[in-house]
Amino acid sequence: MTRTPLDSADGAAVLRPPAPWPRVPARREPRPGLVLAVLAASVFLSALDAFVVNVALTPIGRGVGETSLSRLSWILNGYAIVYAALLVPAGRLTDRYGRKAGFLLGLGVFTLASLGAALSGDLWVLVAFRFLQAAGAAVLTPASLGLVLTTAPPAKVTRHVQIWAASGSLAAAAGPVVGGLLVQAAWQWIFLLNLPIGAVAMVMAVRLLPGGRHGADSRLPDLLGGVLLVVAIGALALGLVQGPEWGWGAAPTIGGFAVAAAALAACLLRSSRHPVPVVDLGLLRDRVFAWANIATLLFYAAFGLQLLGLTLWLQQVWHWSAIETGLGVAPGPAMVFVASALGRRIARRVPVGAVAAMGSALVALGTAWLALTAGGRLDYVTDVLPGWLAAGVGVGLALPTMISSATSGLPRDRAATGSAIVTMAGQVGSVLGVSGLVVVLSAAGSEGPAHAFSLAWWISAGVVALSALAALGISPRASRRRRTG
Prior knowledge:
Helices cover 74% and strands 0% of the residues. It is mainly α and 485 residues long. It has three domains: 187 residues, MFS general substrate transporter like domains (Growth Hormone, Chain: A, Up-down Bundle); 54 residues; 203 residues, Growth Hormone, Chain: A, CATH 1.20.1250. Helix 10 packs antiparallel against helix 17. The longest helix is centred in the N-terminal third of the chain and has 33 residues. The protein is globular.
């Protein structure tokens, strides 16, 4: 018989208090530092994948049986195009459906696509998985930034955002060396590395990250506008990289440029009418934001051409191995850390536009040095290192200043969208830079590779000089208010 609180073993009624409810231990709030480590590590992973591929492009070509630079360039361009076009819509979607869910989805897609890329034995299958990697990274990045903003202690928000952003710079510095080391075993390892790191990050994210929705705007973004942007940038890149092979007057080349123009016009038209556009054209009325986007696009175009050009120069002309190339490329990105800290100090006393212009001018000088010394000699210390170090310092001064200053005067509720648009402009610039290098190298005649690479670097120096001029437009109204710090 079941006993009640009034029952006793000898039948006498004894009043006993009811059994207490089992105590549920209060859930401990995760340490913000640990949450930040998970978010920064995941962004580092997605950024690293863009830099290791530069060093591994030639070994990948040998692995998939492809020697054409115009076709291999899609391993880089495909990633940048999809990432650029989906970044803004993905940020809106994560705000609508939840940043934790978006972060986990993006990280999962990126990790699984990395496995597919490693197993690819065909170039275009690999490019397709690079598209998927970029889609995952486009969801992962804004979701992780939103989570950084909502989980950081109020007094440390700025510091946490700086650490999160620095993870991308760390990937740039580590990427060439990591890529060179991994390729020594097999090119597939540059993608397989993502699997254990991604799996650990997902397990920790499930346990540590807060759920819920944080964005007040529940409207769906303009997904068709994002597709049109992908088509526009992709068709433009296709026309550029295949133009030397197809012929500049051939129907496919002209058709590619026509499709690019039509898709871009349709994207801008939709952006002017859609309530949640892929490109918020209203933000471009802010003069500082507009000039920052122009400067960033030109800067990334020049740097994308310069970085891939140096990598190919060391591997294909000097016949350096992947690890030697990685070590040779690493000093430039490593200077970004020192220079970015210096840039923040200088910007307290000098208009930010001047700081960004000075950095771009240094990159132009460094690139001009590479162009002048490209010749028959094979002396890294005198021919490459001085110009590459100067360029690295210039990147550290210019790029963080451009990006941070672009959104400093925007309304608070539009700063995240503005930041995504600036990032998108940089990715578009990278596509144009890589495509431009393909065009120059494909058009090389009997003068030899030294002439072709020298011409490419002179073009890069000219483009980054234009970026310096555009950067001056960042600070007319910023000398008092828009300081980076």
